[in-house]
Amino acid sequence: MVLDPPLPRPMIGRLVVIGLGLIGSSILRAADARRLAEVSVAYDAEPAVRARVAELGIADEVASSPAEAVKDADIIVLCVPVGAMGAVAQAIAPHVKPGAIVSDVGSVKGAVLNALRTHLPSGVHVVPAHPVAGTEYSGPDAGFATLFKNRWCIVTPPEGADAEAVQAVTALWTALGANVETMTAEHHDLVLAITSHVPHLIAYNIVGTAADLEKVTSSEVIKYSAGGFRDFTRIAASDPTMWRDVFLNNREAVIEVLGRFTEDLIALQRAIRWEQGETLFDLFTRTRAIRRSIIEIGQETAAPDFGRERG
Ligand SMILES: NC(=O)c1ccc[n+]([C@@H]2O[C@H](COP(=O)([O-])OP(=O)(O)OC[C@H]3O[C@@H](n4cnc5c(N)ncnc54)[C@H](O)[C@@H]3O)[C@@H](O)[C@H]2O)c1
Ligand SMILES: O=C(O)C(=O)C[C@]1(C(=O)O)C=C[C@@H](O)C=C1
């Protein structure tokens, strides 16, 4: 997979990335490869992370404070855990120039939009976004320039958002390689609860259950985890801070989806108890078709339906 060639002229003056882990460092790498900004500026709360980013040479400048980072910025992208977005917005608020755009990459949108709007002055354009692309790894060394290539990025502008600012964020993500879709923050949070948040919770739970089973030793779990369980362990290795914040900030949608999930699981339990093979067979046939259609259209380029038929 390769990125498109560099732009003939940078599309952004000063691009600032705050939080230099998997996502922030991937944005910097892709922006550097495609020469999207005249100047890219990086900041992270951890001095060791800032030093590593300077060593990697993926930003033009590494700032030593949030205030220094956002001075004269045109677009600022917050790539910190969802629970830290409010504190970062508060720290940069007095230093962001009027007319600048503040965006983010948080996995939850409603709570982040509220946090950003609470702290940032009204002259600053808030346009949240979420690249639906990632891995179970964290930190600046985990990032790579093609992470967003042919993946979806969901932009969730608040009502009345400045059209030019929304266009600028859309153009940024398109240039980073993503396909952009726009929806409300509320709808995003429901869609991602089913496609990402609850699946992660299930993975954390099943790996935790396996680890706690008294009659199966942990060495047996490791030894025989070549198949399905191994896939769950990859997801369950995802960053604890990030995922704690996701669940605490998308409580309503996660609880709603978990309710449905629990009902369906109990129905399966009943089908097994009463030996209702047809029920099991029908469900497994339906789910197999879903998997095959995802592969057929190519997960990376498929236009997901985002559940719109449910209204
Ligand atoms: N990992 C994924 O698969 C994925 C995918 C899409 C979106 N996201 C979202 O992207 C964001 C970042 O995730 P990541 O995987 O890059 O995390 P990460 O742990 O790799 O990096 C986060 C970085 O933020 C820094 N940070 C934390 N608090 C800070 C603060 N107050 N000020 C400045 N820096 C601070 C940390 O030091 C760390 O370097 C999260 O909001 C997450 O929900 C993650
Ligand atoms: O591929 C993975 O490891 C991911 O978990 C990526 C994933 C997802 O659930 O699809 C995780 C969280 C994000 O907000 C977006 C993408």
Automatic annotation (TrEMBL):
Picking any one GO molecular function of the record gives:
prephenate dehydrogenase (NAD+) activity
Q: Which pathway does it operate in?
A: Amino-acid biosynthesis; L-tyrosine biosynthesis; (4-hydroxyphenyl)pyruvate from prephenate (NAD(+) route): step 1/1
One Pfam family per UniProt: PDH_C
Q: Name one GO biological process term.
A: tyrosine biosynthetic process
Keyword NAD present in the record's keywords: the answer is: yes
Q: Which keywords accompany this UniProt record?
A: Amino-acid biosynthesis, Aromatic amino acid biosynthesis, NAD, Oxidoreductase, Tyrosine biosynthesis
Catalytic activity annotation: prephenate + NAD(+) = 3-(4-hydroxyphenyl)pyruvate + CO2 + NADH
Name the enzyme's class.
oxidoreductase
Residues forming the Prephenate/arogenate dehydrogenase domain are 13-302
Enzyme Commission number, as recorded? 1.3.1.12
The reply on keyword NAD is yes
Q: Report the PANTHER family cross-referenced here.
A: PREPHENATE DEHYDROGENASE, PREPHENATE DEHYDROGENASE [NADP(+)]
Q: Which family does it belong to?
A: Belongs to the prephenate/arogenate dehydrogenase family.
Protein name from the UniProt record? prephenate dehydrogenase
**Gene symbol of the encoding locus:** tyrC
